[in-house]
Amino acid sequence: MSELLVEKQGGVTILTLNRPDRMNAISGPMLAAFSEQLLEANRDPEVRVVVITGAGRAFCAGLDLKEQASGGNLGGGFDLREAPPVVLHQMDKPTIAAINGGAAGYGMDLAIGCDIRLASDAAKLSAAFTKRGVIPESGGTWLMPRLVGWAKASEIFFTGRTLGADECLELGLVSKVVPGELLMKEALALAHEIAANAPLAVQGTKRMMRMALTETFEANVHHVYLQLLPLFRSKDFSEGVKSFLEKRPPKFEGK
User: Domains (ranges, CATH) in the chain?
Assistant: First the structure.
């Protein structure tokens, strides 16, 4: 059975981590396959949104320490520029984490690396890095302070705390908490709502938001203006204006 399931529903690609017997801990082959699928989704003009979730009762228990202890090599020969956290950050396609259960260590970094997070009421984010003698190795030290502020990020990381779904919602780490049986329904409804919008505009918006993290207000406004110029010449812009005037839903092609 594949350790990573790939399903396409219209413009939405669903990636399911599929090692339920190991709480979806990431193996070496799984890591490479996951990166490959993220890169493929970002290249594919038919894909407008990516939803990431886990099979069984966990989202992702982190890197497979058992595999490493037995001589497995998660990092050997792997180009870190194509590691999932880096790929996620650089993707123009929106990403949604449907956190169905525990997300620990690498799994937590993976979840908070997505643009939007929805959680089941059984979801947990576990920042147990310092309890294992390591640090958040996959983007957490960059992401968490930006999501919850320096002081709260310090508290979470330094203590190695585990956060329940309601606490994640209170901190703004997830957008919504729903019963487990409704999680994918909610995630896919949100994904299809996003996918119905002009994909070039959605992707351009994400790109400008990402650039804004490291540039001045003036520089970002300038880059937004440059981003608008090709959008004004796109078929989707014409369709957006036309559908508004005709009072009908738009049919965007990503062109």
Answer: 4-195 (3.90.226.10), 199-245 (1.10.12)
